[in-house]
């Protein structure tokens, strides 16, 4: 597949809201996935599709959360191409289910070249690589470590463990993501040190485009609130809003 359009989204946080709100988010996201499948648009998820996601491989336990969304993605992955899924700090506890659904799963970051443009795709909570100068904080390293997951799953059975993780996720989501400055500073550093045209991330929930030198940093914002996305085509990279009712992308104005 050589798509003419590419869509990047993050921070859907399925499972974080009331049943009615979750259903609305799911419906709009499924409409987007079907739209991308019909028009052969490449899809990239840059983390936190779920507000919490923890598989228990030793007990063959997979959360029932977001089944319809994952079914839609699986159909897309088979009929179009595997969507890239860069796991975030709320949904990195996967042990094969996303791959079984056909995703191209990336737990760290991905360098992508489209035409003559070089892009760094990440969630935004840091990366584990000496190649990219954006180390994860100790807290995020702990949450992503296999040792932590092994101990956590030995102490808490699936129902208790997932319930506790949902509560913990809601607390960190509310507390941490209100300031654009840290990711802006980090993006500026990376543009100074690496040959990049675009850096894309989510994580801090503030949709925006910032120019640093010859590159652009795009924060995708939140699908759950803004329905904001990045759309790349022959016109370049745009920050847009998905309008599920009209099946269109419109310019994101910040409202």
From TrEMBL:
Q: Name one GO cellular component term.
A: membrane
Q: Which residues form the Calcineurin-like phosphoesterase domain?
A: 7-207
| Record-linked InterPro entries | Calcineurin-like_PHP (IPR004843), LpxH-like (IPR043461), Metallo-depent_PP-like (IPR029052)
Does this entry carry the keyword Signal? no
What GO biological process terms are annotated to this protein in UniProt? lipid A biosynthetic process
Q: Name one GO molecular function term.
A: metal ion binding
Its keywords, alphabetically, are: Cell inner membrane, Cell membrane, Hydrolase, Manganese, Membrane, Metal-binding
Pfam families on file: Metallophos (PF00149)
The residues forming a coiled coil are none
**Keyword ATP-binding listed:** no
In its UniProt entry, what is this protein called?
UDP-2,3-diacylglucosamine pyrophosphatase LpxH
List the source organism: Gracilimonas mengyeensis
């Amino acid at each position: 597949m050589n798509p003419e359009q590419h869509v990047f989204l993050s921070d859907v946080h399925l499972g974080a809201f009331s049943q009615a709100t979750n259903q609305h988010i799911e419906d709009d996201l499924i409409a987007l996935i079907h739209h991308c499948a019909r028009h052969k648009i490449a899809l990239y998820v840059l983390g936190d599709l779920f507000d919490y996601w923890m598989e228990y491989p030793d007990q063959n336990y997979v959360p029932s959360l977001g089944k319809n969304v994952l079914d839609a993605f699986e159909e897309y992955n088979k009929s179009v191409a595997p969507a890239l899924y860069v796991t975030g700090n709320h949904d990195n506890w996967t042990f094969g289910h996303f791959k079984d659904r056909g995703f191209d799963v990336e737990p760290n970051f991905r360098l992508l070249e489209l035409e003559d443009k070089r892009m760094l795709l990440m969630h935004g909570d840091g990366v584990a690589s000496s190649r990219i100068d954006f180390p994860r904080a100790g807290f995020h390293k702990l949450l992503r470590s296999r040792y932590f997951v092994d101990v956590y799953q030995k102490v808490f059975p699936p129902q208790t463990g997932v319930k506790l993780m949902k509560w913990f996720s809601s607390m960190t989501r509310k507390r941490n993501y209100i300031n654009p400055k840290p990711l802006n500073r980090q993006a500026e550093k990376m543009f100074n040190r690496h040959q990049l045209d675009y850096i894309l991330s989510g994580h801090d929930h503030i949709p925006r485009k910032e120019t640093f030198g010859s590159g652009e940093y795009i924060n995708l914002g939140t699908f759950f609130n803004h329905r904001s996305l990045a759309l790349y085509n022959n016109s370049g990279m745009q920050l847009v809003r998905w309008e599920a009712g009209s099946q269109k992308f419109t310019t994101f104005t910040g409202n």
